[in-house]
Design a protein that fits this description.
Layout lengths: L19 E4 L5 H10 L1 E4 L8 H7 L5 E4 L7 H6 L5 E4 L9 H6 L3 E3 L6 H16 L2 H9 L20 E5 L3 H13 L3 E5 L6 H7 L1 E3 L2 H7 L2 E4 L13 H4 L7 E4 L8 H9 L5 E4 L10 H4 L4 E3 L8 H18 L16 H4 L3
Parallel strand pairs: 1-2, 1-3, 3-4, 4-5, 6-7, 6-9, 7-8, 9-10, 10-11, 11-12
Helix pairs in contact: 1-13, 5-7
The protein binds glyoxylic acid.
Glyoxylic acid (GLV) binds next to loops.
Length: 348
Amino acid sequence: MGQPRGRGAPDQESGSMKPKVLVTRKVFPEVLERLGAHFELEVNDTERPWTADELLARVQDKAGIYLTPTNRVDAAVLDAGPGLKVVANMAVGFNNIDVAACTARGVLCTNTPDVLTETTADFGFALLLAAARRLTESERFLRAGQWRNWSFDMMMGREVHGSTLAILGMGRIGQAIARRGAWGFGMQVIYHNRSRLPADTEAALKATHVSKEALLRQADHLMIVLPYSAETHHAVGAAELALMKRSATLTNIARGGVVDDAALAGALRERRIAAAALDVFEGEPQVHPALLDLPNAVLTPHIASATVQTRRAMAQLAADNLIAGLGCGPQAGRPPTPLNPQVLAQGG
Ligand code: GLV
């Protein structure tokens, strides 16, 4: 493990004593104001994310990065920014940060858990319902002037209440989905996770742990909430889709890359599963072209946590982390949600 990085010296040219911080995308003005009280900010106020090279060029003299999922912090960024001490991600998912490389260099990483759990679970359920009940397909049909008459078999979907909800990944958001399914919709909840929940938590959620194969075979509605990593890359691909019922739906609110989008598009096109709802995509904001033409795919642009209240809470929590992580404010040295707290123990 490397040495913690020391506090920055006053900037020679500007004479400012404030540490310099990079803000990689626009964020709420009140959050920028808070950050600006402690730091000298360089903000990307364009509508376009910085490229990797643009980030590298800007990081040289910075002590912190206020990061959003569109930019990546890896060894190259850390090498280009020898004074970096804190990387504060405005997201719960942190596959855009090489946490091991940060830890090795004594750089603190933080994310924004908890504040988005319920909102993301709400949206996951909205997507599940939309896929099962053909909501966006029906709306497109109506807007296109194709609705002529009531018909007994028009836009028939799949039952949600009383069906089997299969959750892949059972962290905070998975558990919030389980509660909605079990208590709100009377669903039978099964889940698969690397580690099994304690018995009392399973009982409270009315959730049963099963093997991954059983999960896929029994799912009426598969909800994917796994964090993305090398181990979870294409956790649901052609082989997994082949185990699912033809009547099943799949919802991905985790990360692009957990599902093999090309294989999914094939399964949807051939009606090997009934429908899918995706908020995240491999290589987003690009979307696999084969998905775009499919009537049985509900597609949204990575907005599961996007309510006014939740995005504000995420933005403020990321700011709390950066401010405290850089030794400022009332919580100095005690950022609320560190990913590698061992760096704090080193006194970095
Ligand atoms: C959004 O995708 C997040 O990880 O917070």
